[in-house]
Amino acid sequence: MENLSAAHQALAETLAAVDQLFKLVNDEKINFKPTEKWSFGEEMVHLTLSTNGTAMLLSSPEERLMPSDHPSRTYEEIGAEYREKLALNPTIGQAIADKEAKNYTVVGLQANFAAATQAALQSLSNWEEAKSDLWMVWKHPLLGKMTAREMVYFTVYHSRHHLSTLSTKAGQKAQ
Question: Rounded to two decimals, what is the model's pTM?
Answer without folding.
Answer: 0.91
